[in-house]
Structure formats: C-alpha cells, structure tokens
Structure prediction request, 219 residues.
Amino acid sequence: MEAEVLERINRGIILRTGAYLTNDHFIISSGRHAREYVEKRLVTTEPGFTEGLGDIIATHYGASPVDVVLTSGIGASILGHCVARAHPSRPKLLYAVKGKGREGKTEVVLPPEFFPFLFSGSSTLIVEDILTTGSTIRSLIRLVEERDGRVVGIGTLWNRSAGIKFGCPFFALVTKNFPTYLREECPLCRKGVPLNTQYGGLAGGAAPKRSRGSRRTGS
Ligand SMILES: [Zn+2]
Prediction:
C-alpha cells in the first residue's frame, strides 16, 4: 500500500481516539494560534486503539531483534507497553523518569532498578507518542548509549517536525505539521471564531490573554 494512503489510515485511527482535533481554534504551547491540535493525553484513552497503534509500530520493527522498549512519560509508556506486547522478540518495557542527572540538573534518567535490562550490547526500540522538538528522544538515545546499548529504531505516532534526524531508523505513523499563527495575524481571530478552552493553552478554562471580560459564574 502506498505510504500516503497508509498514513491517511493511521491519521484516521488517531482521529478516532479524539486526540486529533481539527476545524477549531486553539492556543498551542508556544502561544501561537492554530486550527488543528494534537492532544497527546487523549491518544491512549481507548485501549483498543492504543493496541492497534502499538501493533503498527511493532510490525514495522518486527524483523529487528529488540531486547528493550524504552519510553518516557505516561502516555508514551502506555503505547510502549502495547508495542512491547506485540513485538515478536517479547522485549522488556522500561521507562525513563525526570530526575537529577550527573551534574545535579533535572533531566531524563533511567531508574537504577532498570539498569540490568539495558545491558551492554542490548538492542533498544524507543517509543514516543507525539514528537515536537525531539529533545526527549535525544535524551533517551543518550541513556542507551551511556550503557553501551544500541538503538535499533524509534517509533512514534505523530511527528510534527518533518526533516528531523536522529542517526537511526525512524518511523512515524503520521508526519504532519500544521500552520500556526501569531495572534495578531490569526485568520480565526479575525473571523471571530471562539477559542477552544478545553484543549491547548486554555485547557482548564484559563482566561484568554485578551479577554473581553465576560466572566463565568460559579467557580
Ligand atoms: Zn486566533
């Protein structure tokens, strides 16, 4: 099947999880405005879909022996579980956490209890949910290399940064960025489309930066 068709199918699955939101008006984390948004917390709410998405990544790397699936973060770890479960090598699932690094800085570290599984010469598949800057994946690659392991590949659901390179095989179910606008140049603001306050930078009902003062009643 053509890659483009396959990607459209994958995007359809993610759309069905409710994580891919379109035709709306969001403030994204950078403060810019956008018509589309990927809410990674919603990607793993439906276990059947998560398992299906995990299967696709596991199948993509099915021919590579994998000792360890390595993730970071709750959403990516739920997905990573599904990838590890579906991979024919029956790899272990390990997750990195935020902690104090060697120089006392907060960074992504591997809990020492996992050290025996990430041994010298081991093969690791890194799994991430949504890739925006690639900094988490770079930290995970470093953790593997520090323990003389080998990264056999990276699997992710959604890559928002086409052209990003990591020096090892990389697979994304969907590679798509979407246009974002400065508030002053946002066509949706110009049309008066109300901002979505449930997802994105206004999640939790924080007041928009240029509120017109229509206060909500109640708390
Ligand atoms: Zn706007």
Remarks:
- The chain has one domain: 3-202.
- The CA atoms of residues 19 and 156 lie 14 Å apart.
